[in-house]
Amino acid sequence: MDLTTGSILRQILRCDLSVSAHKLATIILDGIAWKDGYNGLDRGTAAFTLSTLAEIMGVTRQHLTTLLAELAASELRIERWKPNGKFAPWLFRFGCVSDEVPQHLASTGGDTSLSRESNNKTIFSGKIEITPGSNVHRTTWAALIKAAKAALPCWNVDTQAIWDRFMAFNEARGNTCVPAGFLLGFMRRWQTSVGRPPAAPRSVSCPRSDTGSAETELVRLTRSAPVANRQFHAADLQRRIGAAAYEARVLDVIRKFGCQRFSATLAVHGRAVLAGEIAR
Question: Which of 62, 139, 235, 279 is most enclosed, with most CB atoms within 10 A?
Fold first, then answer.
């Protein structure tokens, strides 16, 4: 069976499934990437967290697992796997379809229509000027980063933090202008640098007065709590002091240093590690 909306939908309707399983299959079908690179996905795959699917379906996680098992055992043979870590979305694929790309969907070397004329695709084309300290939300790249990261290892990282790390990465290598595709590749390889501290203190916008000491203090705090452990740090600290107190600490750091929430969260974790409230 070819990988097209119509062929999969007809197969869904032909399958002897429960009403809820039919609904779940169509939701997964709606999220399928029909061309390589859409939202950072391979062609024929969709990305969802189980909590998102359960919310859309209006069912419990336990019932959702039962429905997924029903789909996997059906003629649809829906497969799912998680390549990007415990907290990343699951990837889904209809195992009943062929991996072969139909001729009318294959692109030749000079064909750009599939990538540049599709308004509903996440496309990284053009050039990016390397300007450390810039605000990504004042560029056209913010929306693309937000859309593409959904299925990538950096799915839960702040958009500005991704941009700052990308700027610092290229500045360190002497690059002043790079192809936009470099940004998508950088996001796909995020796990290779996930254990490093946030890049470059210049990405933090601190008050003009006493800027140097404020930046130094913020960097010192963020480096005290490895970014790879931020999910565990957040959970441990909220259990210890409560969610409201945790949020108050984050807002206090934002006000004090004038930084992004991602950096403020790491600083709160670092301060707690230094104070012995949580483990490193």
Answer: 139
